[in-house]
What we know:
CATH topology: Rossmann fold
Number of helices: 7
Helix content: 25-40%
Structural class: alpha/beta
Number of domains: 1
Largest sheet: 8 strands, mixed
Number of strands: 14
Strand order of the largest sheet: 2-1-3-4-14-13-12-9
CATH architecture: 3-Layer(aba) Sandwich
Shape: globular
Amino acid sequence: MIAIIDYGVGNLRSVEKAILAVGHDAFVTQNPEEVVKAEHVVLPGVGAFGAAMDSLRATGMDEAVRTVVAAGKPFMGICLGMQLLFTESFELGHYEGLNLIPGKVLQFFQPEDRTPETDALKVPHMGWNELTVRKPAPPLKDFPAGGMTYHVHSFYCAPEDPEVVAATARHGIEFCSAVWKDNIFASQFHPEKSGSLGLRILKNFGDWRP
Length: 210
């Protein structure tokens, strides 16, 4: 059974429907105890980093997430849910994250990244991008070369350890689009909006036994 964390932010029902569509049981919950008891856990989300962290702390979901990860259960973050796993974000200020993956959440584009190419691009980054797999994370099993995933974001994750980068994509710069660390997999792209390849990732996640 896959628990989908409801902390008042995000795109929960579409994630639930996509997981159910690939044959795994899933439920949306606001109860930290149910999250801790689940076999797999998904942290989805869209919105602002600071408000999302406030909500996680207010509901006790931050500690539930840490408990699940420490127990070695398969855990997946999606979009904002990926960013919240990092140490800190600079979205509309400076905010501390869950620090389960050391690194920063930065806005497109940093001064050192500015080029004529980046100046011509729109932010937020929105649309389909080729995903380049860098490490064989279990949810990315059988992901084809040239496969596309759907992104909607203005900020991206910059891990301290390049070894946790599972996949990259490009929007003016190459950025981290997925991470894999032990029992944590997280994607900046939305698998529930990424067609058949996204559904395959969700099925692989549900099949995953770290």
